[in-house]
Amino acid sequence: MINKFLSINKLKILSYVSLLGILMVLFQITLGGIVRVTESGLGCPDWPLCDGQIVPELDFHTAIEWGHRVSGASIGILIIIINVISVKFFGRKSAQSSIAFSLLLLVVLEGVLGGVTVLTELAWWVRLIHLGVSFVILFLFAYLFSSIRKVNKKSFISNLKIFQEYILNTTLIGLLILMLYGSAIVGLGVNSSCMSWPDCMGQWIRFNESSYLLHMIHRYLALVFGLMILYISHVVGRFAMRRSFVKIIARSLGLIFILHILFSIGLVHAGFDEWLRVVHLSLAGIIWLFVSWLFIEYRIFKST
Q: Is residue 187 a contact partner of residue 127, using CB atoms and an 8 Å limit?
């Protein structure tokens, strides 16, 4: 009876599970930001246990770091469930099983990187890779969701023009570079070096300190790729079918990105408040998800 129910509703079940995975990864990214701003990365000084225990005594920093680990482990369990569902109801050679297995490999890698982060006492470059892998996992969860939707072929009115496809592809890569560069300047301790906006302490091109230059590169990259995001949001929204999933995502992307820009300006004027930085990271994760979805949906549409 249960197997029959699962077989009949396999597409719906896997879509719900993949959406749950998306929400969990976004939460994990946010929680990672909280770990960083509260300096709780060494709340558990060992790995894979925490203070030599599965469930440690929870003071403030330990609770945050341990919660981050539990959240990551929960994502791992969900991915194992997704692998079982994909193989059982879609077959080992299906696109769903391939995506699910890739997710499994990446979540294992993410766990190992988490351990290396602790053992290297929070080396910034390890944290950078750790964050990058989480964005790839989010991309694959979005891919899994889109791969089981039967309406992909109805998502667009027609193909994008060649240069528009190029901009869409470049936007995806550029956004990943922008986010990782942002993480790098945080790791290098120069993220709050420019306490004015839009200039950097009255400087635009020539800078008295290298930290100003490193920070302003992030702003200039944000300007370039931000314009591309807004363009893609408009173009894909125009080519998408009325009331389709793609049109909703495209329009939402534009609004969220504008909100993110306004929030970034407020972040500077607020002196780079720690908790505002967490929200800043969360919004970046959502923007990455939406750009990824537009890219994925269009590739699936073209392939069908």
A: yes
CA 71/CA 52 separation, integer angstroms = 19
CB 176 within 8 A of CB 56: no
pTM: 0.93
Q: Looking at the structure, tell me whether residues 171 and 268 fall in a common domain.
A: yes
The residue out of 148, 176, 199 marking a domain boundary is 148
Angle between helices 124-147 and 10-37 (to 10 degrees): 160
The candidate with the shortest Cα–Cα distance to 141, out of 291, 6, 25, is 25
Amino acid identity for residue 50 in this structure:
C
Q: Do 109 and 176 belong together in one domain?
A: no
* φ and ψ of 204, to 5 deg: -120, -45
For the beta carbon of residue 110, count every other beta carbon within 10 angstroms. 22
In single-letter form, the type of residue at position 186 comes to V
pLDDT per position as a tens digit, 127-155: 899 999 999 999 999 999 998 876 566 78
